[in-house]
């Protein structure tokens, strides 16, 4: 029996670039912290990079957790408001339909009037 090979699924280009940009910003912030530590305590910035990366990643995780908790609180509050009837249920949205071929120039006929330019007085 043949076994299937593990083939990595390609990620979308935008997701790849977004991840690279996020990691780039993290590294820039870590280097800024490392330079700050080097100027304050002496030494070279590379000596402080490890600790700076830990600080930046901890801050990123803390912010992500706070955002997730805040989002959960808001969604829970919305659910209770919907259950109490404070928020009306969403109304159905009418879908746009293109006019038939004879009425494609509806705006022009509306400007000129149904019976011609005589019916509209400016």
Structure characterization notes:
The chain is mostly helical and 122 residues long. It has 3 helices and no strands. It has helices at 13-41, 49-84, 106-112. The protein starts with 12 loop residues before the first helix and ends in a 10-residue tail after the last helix.
Explain briefly what this protein structure is.
It is built from three helices and no strands. It has helices at 13-41, 49-84, 106-112.
List keywords for this structure.
122 residues; mainly alpha; 3 helices
Please write out the topology.
Layout: H1 13-41, H2 49-84, H3 106-112
Helix pairs in contact: 1-2
Please tell me the overall pLDDT.
Answer: 82
Main sheet: strands, sense, barrel: none
Overall body shape: extended
Fraction of residues in H or I helices? 55-70%
Rg, Cα atoms, Å: 30 Å
């Amino acid at each position: 029996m043949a076994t299937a090979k593990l083939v990595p699924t390609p990620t979308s280009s935008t997701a790849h670039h977004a991840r690279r940009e996020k990691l780039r910003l993290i590294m820039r912030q870590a280097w800024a912290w490392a330079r700050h530590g080097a100027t304050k305590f002496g030494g070279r910035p590379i000596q402080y990079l490890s600790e700076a990366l830990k600080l930046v990643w901890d801050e990123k995780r803390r912010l992500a957790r706070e955002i997730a908790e805040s989002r959960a609180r808001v969604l829970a509050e919305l659910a209770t408001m919907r259950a109490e009837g404070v928020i009306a249920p969403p109304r159905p949205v009418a879908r746009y339909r293109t006019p038939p071929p004879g009425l494609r120039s509806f705006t022009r006929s509306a400007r000129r009037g149904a019976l011609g330019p005589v019916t509209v007085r400016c």
